[in-house]
Amino acid sequence: MTVDTQNVGAPERPVETARPASGPRAPKPFWRRPWIIPLALVVLAFLVYEAMIYVPEETAPLPPHDHFPMYYPLLAVHMFVGTLAMITVVLQVWPKLRKRYPKVHRVSGRVYVVSAMIGGVIGLILVPFAPPIGQIGVAFATLSWIGFTVTGFVYARKGLYAQHRRFMLYSFAIVMNNVVGTVITNVLMRMPFEVSFTYLLEAARWVGWVGNLMVVQWWLYRTAGRKLEVPAGKSVNV
């Protein structure tokens, strides 16, 4: 029999137990993401406001288009698909919906892409009938909307979800220019001082989408290290 003289009087070591495996991260409470409902309400208010202005044709503030009788029918289609685009883009940026109902995210994403393509092409057809002031801004915004949307869709099909997220957020920034431009116009028109119509219209055509892109780019930099949630069974390719 041998005695361990080195450990005599030493306290007994606690028995190590296995730590329970951490489960899935709990979803963030609503107050941590309080923006989705205000965003949806702003989009809804904008759509109702636009419908009240442009429907019916007799009271709509339309530019001269006597030599193009298809102007209002095309504008009506543009507004219809634009409405679909703005509704589905809200669903696209809703994290909870994207995580819990990926099929809804995919279907609404396809509706958004088709709506953006149709609305963008019709928008380019109608641009020459818009007031000359701001035409370049509208054309650049529309071309960017089409380009960002197509690029984001292609990346999604290739499984490059980080790039897909980036370009679809750019597309989101462009389509939200409709809301920002309307707000800018109405605010400047109600200022106690007179604002030149030229500056007002140019601001409405440029500040909205350029400013939105800057905010989105800041957000992408801010969340660069965040783990990207992808559909089940998928992997993030970079």
Rg value: 26 Å
* pLDDT < 50 stretches: 13-24
Count of distinct structural domains: 1
- Helices and strands: which structural class? mainly alpha
Helix content: 55-70%
Note the run of SSEs as H and E: HHHHHHHH
Assess the beta-strand content as a share of residues.
under 5%
Global geometry: globular
DSSP summary, beta strand count: 0
Distance between the termini: 64 Å
How would a textbook summarize the main sheet? Answer: none
What is the helix tally? 8
**Mean pLDDT over the full residue set:** 84
Offer a concise description of the structure.
By secondary structure, this protein is mostly helical. It is 63% helix and 0% strand. It is built from 8 helices and no strands.
Description:
The protein contains eight helices and no strands. With 238 residues, it is mainly α. The protein has one domain (34-222). Helix 2 (71-92) packs antiparallel against helix 4, helix 4 runs antiparallel to helix 5 and helix 5 (135-157) packs antiparallel against helix 6 (161-175). It is globular and about 50 Å long.
